[in-house]
């Protein structure tokens, strides 16, 4: 018989955690700057750079809050 259960991919979990950290930092930057309109992508990239994450996160996830980048 085959085993259908497998361990979760730790790389995927790490990427999810990284995206969440970027999202949280981008939101904090947005608040620190007085919640300006239209600078979400800039805040996302700044957060990514501050946190030292690679270019794989340049394309942000779908907008779920004020600091999420526009597509």
Summarize the structure.
The protein has 71 residues and is mainly α.
Description:
- With 71 residues, the protein is an all-alpha fold.
- Helices cover 49% and strands 0% of the residues.
- The protein is elongated.
- Helix 1 crosses helix 2 (40-51).
- The longest helix has 23 residues, at 10-32.
- It has helices at residues 10-32, 40-51.
Number of distinct helices: 2
Q: What's the total count of β strands? A: 0
- What characterizes the major β-sheet? none
Mean pLDDT: 78
What is the H/E string?
Answer: HH
Q: What radius of gyration results from the CA coordinates?
A: 15 Å
Helix percentage range? 40-55%
Shape: elongated
Structural class: mainly alpha
The oligomeric status of these chains comes to single chain
Strand content: under 5%
Low-confidence stretches: 66-71
Determine the N-to-C terminus distance: 46 Å
Topology summary:
Elements: H1 10-32, H2 40-51
